[in-house]
Amino acid sequence: MPGDRTATGAVLRTGRAAAVNYGEHPPQTAPFRDRGLRAGAAAPIRVNGRLWGALATASADPDRAGPEMLEPLESFADLVQLAIGNAEAWQTLTHQATTDAVTGLPNRQWFDQSLANEIARAQRHGRPLSLVLLDLDNFKRVNDIHGHPVGDRVLHELGARLSAQARRSETVARIGGEEFAWILAETDGEDAFTAADQVRAAIASAPFVDVGPLTVSAGVSTLTAGGTSERLIAEADAAMYEAKRGGRNRTVLFGTVPGPTAVGEGRARSRV
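RE: above sequence
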């Protein structure tokens, strides 16, 4: 806070360890003195060269938090900043390992783990679970005509559109090339088909910057008794390729005979 005269405030202003007698600045340190505290000491914690925070102590005895406290406090602050730096580095590495660099979405590694977790939860509680695989139609043509930088922007935009359509509890991931996966927990096959077909239609209706209209083909599968992630993926993949064979820009629900409720080509129903 502006005018902070505590030891932590001194660290913020100077970047150096400080010891403060709270009787020297009555207006600014009154809340501490009202709690019986008479002195404080603090040492800076730096992470990656920047001031991250402070390690502070306070005492009712002004002689217990004086300048003699600074050396041991700084030594302990060194250990704290080492631990925080390691934790942040680990978090960064974990994020990089599980995030697709082009789209910013979870990658295949994160998707595989998320799907396994959702399947286990669905089977444990007897709840529905569906998977949608979406593949951008004729994407090679985009790269060939416009170049890979534009292709990457298209993939990024497609990922953003999919994420915007998904619920917060749902996972959208890029699992390779121009293929995306969408895990829909608490969703049966018919509702997943509806959601996927609405997304397919929305993508087809909104041109991409520098490229124009593009479409996706989508395959939908739903978890059955004793189902596994491998089976769920294989069924969604088979449905997606059926959509490709049927002319692209289609949504196919696995295990159904192509028809009004099995193949989407522009129809849309409300998603509950």
